Amino acid sequence: MTGKKIGLALGAGATRGLAHLGVLQVFNEHGLQFDCVAGSSAGALFGSLYAAGSDLNLLERLARELKEGQLLDLAVPRWGLIRGDRIEALVRTLTRGLTFAELKVPLYVVAVDVESGELVVLDRGRVADAVRASIAMPGLFVPKRLGGRLLVDGAVLAPVPVEVLRERGAGIVVAVDVHYGVAETEKIRVNNLFELFFRSLALTGRAMCYQALKGADLVIRPAVGHLSPARLHNVEEYIEQGRRAALASLPRLLALFAGKEP
């Protein structure tokens, strides 16, 4: 085992973030335990569940049964189309109302103060509050007021929070990119307002994401770029693609954990 702290950076990606679940399942099955986790948007959600020690197989069954209407509580569109209260309540239940101090693994949730323009790393208080802030995609979700700040989606400034882990002492960082891995020449069919929104966000953040990933020791990219980031219809494929990508990276992962790679 390497003496370096090994961190896991889970990237943004809306419903494509379900691929994180497959990746995390493989990590657990092979006894790979990270020293710290950072997540942005969907990565914050799944990072919180991992850090809380949640049953990943139970989460998979829950994901298969969930319907979009159960999660989306529409709002009068002053700040956003979706209030986000239902998702926050679900996260609170899944994380058992834990605070950051009560987690099994140190967790850093990334959000953005939309008024100051600053990146905010949340690591205190209730985990569900922080996750709700990190998933607040501007214009879609109502922002989260927390600690005197008006917070929105961490992907606005840090789609894959590799540097957050470096700044907190991680000597090795494994990143999972579930949103921005689509080839620049690949055409994506856009069918509705939500898909238009997510596609635009992906294109806007592409260069920023590529730059962040240069700082990772290993990048795992589930092949989910062809799947809609705005629908829950492909739960099985998201998870399966996450598992495949993690298994393909397993030799390098094991080498990193054994300290056999610089």
Question: Percent of residues in beta strands?
Answer: 15-25%
- Number of beta-strand segments: 10
The tally of structural domains comes to: 1
Q: Any guess at the CATH architecture?
A: 3-Layer(aba) Sandwich
Shape, please?
Answer: globular
Indicate the low-confidence ranges by residue numbers.
none
Helix and strand content put the structural class at: alpha/beta
Q: What is the tally of helical segments?
A: 10
What does this structure look like?
With 262 residues, this protein is of the alpha/beta class. The protein has one domain (6-248): Cytosolic phospholipase A2 catalytic domain (3-Layer(aba) Sandwich), CATH 3.40.1090. The protein has ten helices and ten strands. It has helices at 18-29, 42-51, 56-65, 68-71, 85-94, 127-134, 162-167, 193-213, 235-248, 250-258; strands at residues 6-10, 36-40, 80-82, 107-113, 118-122, 139-141, 144-146, 149-153, 172-176, 218-220. Strands 1, 2, 4, 5, 7, 8, 9 and 10 form an eight-stranded mixed β-sheet that branches. Strands 3-6 form a two-stranded parallel sheet. Helix 5 (85-94) crosses helix 6 (127-134). The longest helix is centred in the last third of the chain and has 21 residues, at 193-213. It is globular. The model has no long low-confidence stretch (mean pLDDT 86).
Topology:
Elements: E1 6-10, H1 18-29, E2 36-40, H2 42-51, H3 56-65, H4 68-71, E3 80-82, H5 85-94, E4 107-113, E5 118-122, H6 127-134, E6 139-141, E7 144-146, E8 149-153, H7 162-167, E9 172-176, H8 193-213, E10 218-220, H9 235-248, H10 250-258
Helix pairs in contact: 1-2, 1-3, 1-9, 2-6, 5-6
